[in-house]
Amino acid sequence: MTEKKLLMLFVRNPELGKVKTRLAASVGPETALDIYLHLLRHTRDITQELPVDKVVYYSEKVEQQDLWPDARYLKKVQPPGDLGEKMKLAFETAFAEGYTSVVIIGSDCHQLTSDIVNQAFDELKTHEVVIGPALDGGYYLLGMRHLHPELFHNKRWSTEHVFPDTLYDIERLHLSHTLLPYLSDIDKLEDLQESWPDLN
Question: Residue 196: what pLDDT?
Answer without folding.
Answer: 56
